[in-house]
Design goal:
Helix content is 46%, strand content 14%. The chain is built from 20 helices and 14 strands. A 5-stranded mixed beta sheet has the order 3-2-1-4-7, with helices on both faces. Strands 8-11-12-13 form a 4-stranded antiparallel beta sheet, with no helix packed on it. Strands 9-10-14 form a 3-stranded mixed beta sheet, with no helix packed on it. The longest helix has 31 residues.
């Protein structure tokens, strides 16, 4: 039997293949074949747990099948195919069986096929439940280590926080430095990552950061509204990792450590005064890392990404998402909300209600239960400014706001020429503020009196006085109303009296009256 263990032990200790061949008594081609198979399977060092039977089964599985008369499956091909989207072990077994019969060989039954693949996957250190599909997930996080940006004024340097995004399948990554870890930086980092990858994954796996996840609620955590909006815009979904479950995002956790060692640590002594300059250095290191050849698998990060993963990504939107920030507020009694010490109106019906606020660079939108109820151009400059729309006011407030001499004349003209003349007298006789105060009391009368009654009272007061007042006008209006009421009551009494006596026949009916001719 070939001494697989001895061959690999000598090889990893630096012994030449010629010497190994002499030592174990195997042909040089055999020794070379064993070493090449070990490299292909990802062996990089020797451990004591490997035995000759185990190594023979792992390195040359086809020998076991041929010895028993079965068609040898290509387990490496099966393992690679299973990582593709919508692929199943059952389908691969069907294809394997058909090919075996065409070659005149006996295929394994599905149960045996699955059992042998399970052993192969275990030996290959592939945990089947954690197997990733190309383009399926993008894991994101902030690195624990930070960089420093020099302060031009000579003060303490600024901390630079490094964002990392990694595809678990290809380990292809993106990094970028930011001055803070706010929601705006978090969203910007995602957009830049999508543009770097030139595509969007099916799902994003972040940590439970406040910038992304507001509250953890078991399997359905509550997402930050701006983060959810980003996912909707780019047609992806957010799947936050479970609390204290680092394996949920093992790739980015590993990449965080790798980036910290390979990139952040190597730039710790770099002197930069500009964030863009620092990021350029980060991206240079990143490109080198993504192009570096793997030690335990063929190819590099960028090669595997371009060939196997990128075709599975969703296409990138042609226009970039306009960033927005979401907040909550309570509508004050003056039907306004406060945002950054500026005040914006909402319909007065929502007083004391909790509303959601969407803030963009130039616009503010207010939502109540996902329905937009108000929008304003964002105020800038001096704090304490008000943006108030008249349609948001109660009727009495709106009337007061719109109460001007011009508006008063328009109202009076709608009543009649006598009312317009009365209003002109009030405006010309008193200061504007006092006159408007008098006129507002007149306008309030329209709630309980018709336009005809108001016009008649104005006619009466103009005829009765050369210096009419609002007090006298109200007296005349009430007197006219009482007279009209008395008149209506008289008509009602007369009608009731006639009805109580029934129909009365005249003298002609009884022949008591003759016509003179």
């Amino acid at each position: 039997m070939i001494q697989y263990r001895k061959i690999l032990e000598l090889y990893f200790n630096g012994v030449s293949q010629r010497t190994i061949s002499t030592s174990v008594g195997s042909a040089r081609n055999t020794v070379s074949d064993v070493i090449q198979r070990a490299k292909k399977r990802g062996f990089v060092e020797w451990t004591e747990e490997y035995t000759d039977p185990w190594l023979e089964t792992f390195l040359f599985p086809e020998k076991q099948a041929v010895e028993k008369g079965y068609a040898p499956p290509d387990w490496e091909f099966v393992h690679k195919e299973l990582q593709k989207k919508n692929m199943t072990l059952k389908l691969l077994h069907t294809e394997y069986s058909e090919q075996s019969r065409l070659n005149g060989q006996i295929p394994y039954a599905y149960r045996t096929f699955a059992e042998k693949y399970g052993k192969y996957a275990k030996k290959y250190k592939a945990t089947m439940p954690q197997r990733r599909k190309p383009g399926e997930l993008l894991e994101v996080d902030w690195a624990g280590s930070t960089l420093a940006l020099n302060n031009r004024s000579g003060g303490n340097p600024f901390k630079i926080y490094v964002f990392i995004a990694t595809f678990p399948y290809s380990q292809y990554s993106y990094v970028e430095g930011f001055l803070d870890m706010t929601s705006e930086s978090w969203l910007t980092a995602h957009i830049h990552a999508f543009e770097y990858f030139q595509g969007v994954p099916e799902a994003i796996v972040p940590d439970n950061l406040k910038t992304g996840v507001i509250k953890t609620q078991g399997s359905e955590p509550k997402l930050n509204e701006a983060y959810r909006e980003l996912a909707d815009y780019y047609h992806t979904v957010i799947i936050p990792s479970r609390v204290r479950k680092p394996k949920d995002k093992a790739s980015v956790e590993g990449t965080v450590g790798f980036v910290s060692r390979q990139i952040i640590a190597s730039l710790r002594h770099i002197q930069c005064f500009d964030l863009l300059d620092l990021n350029q250095k980060l991206w240079h290191k990143l490109e080198k890392m993504n192009n570096e050849v793997f030690q335990k698998r063929p190819g590099s990060r960028i090669q595997v990404y371009n060939e196997e993963e990128k075709p599975h990504l969703h296409p990138l939107r042609s226009t970039r998402l306009k960033l927005s920030e979401w907040r909550t507020a309570k509508v004050q009694l003056n039907y306004h909300i406060q945002v950054d010490r500026m005040y914006y109106s909402v319909p007065y019906e929502y007083i004391q209600s909790d509303v959601d606020i969407r803030l963009s660079k130039d616009l503010i939108e207010v939502y109540f239960k996902e329905s937009r109820i108000a929008s304003h151009k964002r105020l800038k400059g001096t704090i304490g400014q008000y943006a108030t729309l008249t349609e948001h006011m109660p009727d009495n407030h709106r009337l007061f706001m719109e109460h001007t001499p011009e508006n008063s004349r328009e109202w009076a003209e709608g009543i009649g020429k006598n009312m317009l003349e009365f209003i002109e007298i009030l405006l010309n006789r008193s200061p504007e503020k006092k006159a408007l105060h008098q006129i507002i009391s007149l306008r309030n009368l329209s709630r309980n009196h018709s336009n005809e009654a108001l016009e008649l009272a104005a006619q009466n007061i103009l005829l009765a006085s050369s210096s009419p007042t609002v007090t006298v006008y109200k007296t005349i209006l009430n007197r006219n109303k009482k007279r009209e009421k008395i008149k209506e009551q008289g008509k009602l009494t007369e009608t009731q009296t006639n009805q109580s006596y029934g129909f009365v026949r005249g003298a002609d009916y009884f022949g008591g009256k003759t016509n003179d001719k």
